[in-house]
Amino acid sequence: MSHRTCPTRSMVVRTSTTVVAFAAFGLLAVACSDSKSISSAESTTTSDSTLVALETSTTDTTLTTTTTAVAETTLVPDTTVATTVAPPPPPAPTCAAATAPTGAAISLANTSGDWNGDGNLDTAVSWAEPVGDGLDWFVRTEIAGGPASSVALGDLGVGFAAVMDAIDVNFSLGAPEGSNREEVLAIVGVSSSGYNLGVFGVTDAGCAFQFDDGAGAAFQLPTAGTIGQLSGVRCDGGAGSQFLVKLEASSVDEVTWDTTDYRIDRQGAQSLVLGTPIAGSLTAGDPALAQYGQATCGGVNYLDEFNDSGGDF
Ligand SMILES: [Ca+2]
Ligand SMILES: [Ca+2]
């Protein structure tokens, strides 16, 4: 009768899994073939242990696969966030005035330099617009990829305006990127013995301005020569700096000249002021005397009122 228990146990195994059924069937077959020497209780115990082990293994594999699928699904939203389009750049700043030469403009002069310190060359232009019997003069800067803006100089009488070149009134090696900006050196008027020079720059927004003297008037550098009186300007620098020096010389006998040098310092954003005067003396014929009646920078002699008094522009 003992062999009748075998089919019943086999049906229970098939309700679990196919794999378990085959394994269990094998075990049961062994148990049945030798049913006379092995009790049914021993056979059942062996089969149950095998079933538990196989079912546990199958369950673990299924859980692992499910966990992996969930992790992959979670990555999708992250990828979508990373491809979000960047916001548009802010609009270019606008300047208070941006007068441009009209078809009637005369006396145009041009120069170039890096006015905003971004490494790209910018331009500047000066001109006059006929107004009635007079002329209105302008200086305009144009930043490459930035704004254009103008400074109105008004009616300069018998004088005129003309941009000449790029200079730097306050270069400093190692200064923060973008803060070393070139400035515009320009004639902004004339005198009985020469010219008056002005300096223009641009603001952080790229808008043009004329440097003042720190006391409400436009900063002007006369370059002139007359009997017993010379005035000029030169660039100077050293140890990674660059600045302008205002020059004056006077003589009562045209033999011995008293000289005065003023370093020009930038004060605040838009002012140029004279530093402590340095006095000296030169004798007529000394080559160093000539620069006191000239505007020179970087080896370029822009105006020479020492050798060519009376105007050479
Ligand atoms: Ca530039
Ligand atoms: Ca500068």
Order of helices and strands: HHHEEEEEEEEEEEEEEEE
Globally, the shape reads: globular
Radius of gyration, taken over Cα atoms and rounded to an integer in Å:
46 Å
Mean pLDDT across every amino acid position: 81
Q: Count of DSSP helices?
A: 3
The proportion of residues forming helix, as a percent range, comes to 10-25%
Structural class: alpha+beta
Instruction: Indicate the proportion of strand residues.
Output: 35-45%
Largest beta-sheet details: 12 strands, mixed
Number-wise, the strands total 16
Termini separation:
134 Å
Each distinct ligand: calcium ion
Whole-number total of structural domains? 2
Q: Low-confidence parts, pLDDT < 50 over ≥5 residues?
A: 1-71
Structure in words:
By secondary structure, the chain is an alpha+beta fold. The chain folds into 2 domains: 2-82; 106-304, no CATH class. The chain is 22% helix and 39% strand. It has helices at residues 5-14, 18-33, 40-82; strands at 106-113, 122-131, 134-142, 148-154, 162-167, 171-172, 183-191, 194-202, 208-210, 221-226, 229-238, 241-250, 256-267, 271-283, 294-297, 300-304. Strands 5, 6, 7, 8, 9, 10, 11, 12, 13, 14, 15 and 16 form a 12-stranded mixed sheet that branches. A 4-stranded antiparallel sheet has the order 1-2-3-4, with no helix packed on it. A hairpin with a 5-residue loop joins strand 12 and strand 13. One calcium ion binds next to loops.
